[in-house]
Design goal:
Length: about 300
């Protein structure tokens, strides 16, 4: 179990969050990621301004907030796909500012994208094998695919097949990813993220465009990541998912963290209700709160 490598200082996983005060910036007993003073501006827009935030190791943390709140930008910063103007953050105590995303991946932090980055002209299996390289650009992927040598190829293919079995996608192994539904591509992206057996998995809207049947299996997969001792941070507008599987919820609005706490605490938080009602007058907080993501019909 990955959890066994945890710091002895505090309780790891969801148990460590029991009794922790739901207050912005609150310390966690065993944080895997710590962010301080992060500011990301695009021209005159401050997309992210986070003073202090800790993510508990071995827990499932949801990052929620209205459209444009800065969730994806914050993910991009933490995973080093983007650089802030100010601030510092660490993963397992290692400062990440200025580190290349593929090195971050090698350290055990893997993220998926709001708009999936599976390569449609490659097969499902080829996409999986590329996951073994970590978070690289597409040109690197293509070169890598051509230059795979046999022993490594066998190992990587074995791992890919295991994960495809686990995600019940093995029958699609030779299909082009472009032929899959949006929901299946989300599932493929999550499976691919696990090729390097990451310690922290960051999922940006894993449920967007996924049909109800596939949602249930996605939920199960996310829970099983936690059961294996991995840490999960996910961005999601689907409040059923947030309340069902999260141990902790962080709420962003206009670039700032406006609340954090257990799902129960967050569901009753007036600032959270106001943030959502500000953009989403007709939605119930305990229903499909904030699901204003444009387009993207659910896949058939
Ligand atoms: N590359 C960019 N250039 C300019 N502005 C950007 C860029 N990326 C994000 N922004 C702006 O930063 C703000 C935060 O955007 P972000 O995509 O992080 O929000 P989000 O919370 O992920 O929203 P959603 O729920 O719709 O995915 C928005 O005002 C957005 O327009
Ligand atoms: Mg986003």
């Amino acid at each position: 179990m990955l959890a066994s490598s945890a710091s002895p200082v505090g309780a790891t996983g969801p148990a460590g969050l029991i009794g922790i005060e739901g207050r912005v910036g609150v310390s966690k007993p065993d944080p895997i990621v710590v962010a301080d003073g992060i500011v990301r501006r695009f021209g005159g827009v401050t997309a992210v301004s986070v003073d202090h935030l800790e993510f508990q190791r071995g827990a499932i943390t949801a990052l929620i907030g209205p459209n444009g709140a800065g969730k994806t930008t914050f993910f991009n910063l933490l995973s080093c796909f983007d650089q802030p103007q100010e601030g510092s953050w660490s993963f397992n105590g290692t400062p990440l500012r200025g580190v290349a995303p593929h090195k971050v991946a090698r350290m055990g932090l893997i993220r998926t994208f709001q708009l999936t980055k599976v390569l449609s002209k490659m097969t499902v299996l080829e996409n999986m094998r590329l996951g073994a390289t970590g978070q690289r650009g597409e040109r690197f992927f293509a070169g890598f695919a051509r230059s795979l040598w046999s022993r490594q190829e066998q190992e990587i293919t074995g791992r890919a097949d295991e994960l495809l079995e686990r995600f019940k996608m093995h029958h699609m192994r030779e299909q082009f990813a472009g032929q899959m539904s949006g929901g299946q591509r989300k599932l493929l992206e999550m499976a691919r993220a696990l090729m390097t057996s990451p310690e922290l998995v960051m999922l940006d809207e894993p449920m967007a465009g996924v049909n109800p049947a596939l949602k249930q299996s996605l939920l199960g997969h996310v829970k099983s990541l936690r059961d294996e001792g991995r840490t999960v941070i996910f961005v999601e507008h689907d409040m059923d998912m947030v309340f069902d599987i999260s141990d902790w919820v962080v709420v962003m609005a206009e670039g700032r963290v406006i609340a954090e706490g257990t799902p129960e605490q967050i569901g009753q938080n007036q600032a959270v209700i106001d943030a959502y009602l500000g953009t989403n007058h007709d939605k119930e907080l305990d229903g499909d709160m904030g699901n204003t993501t444009p387009g993207g019909p659910s896949d058939e």
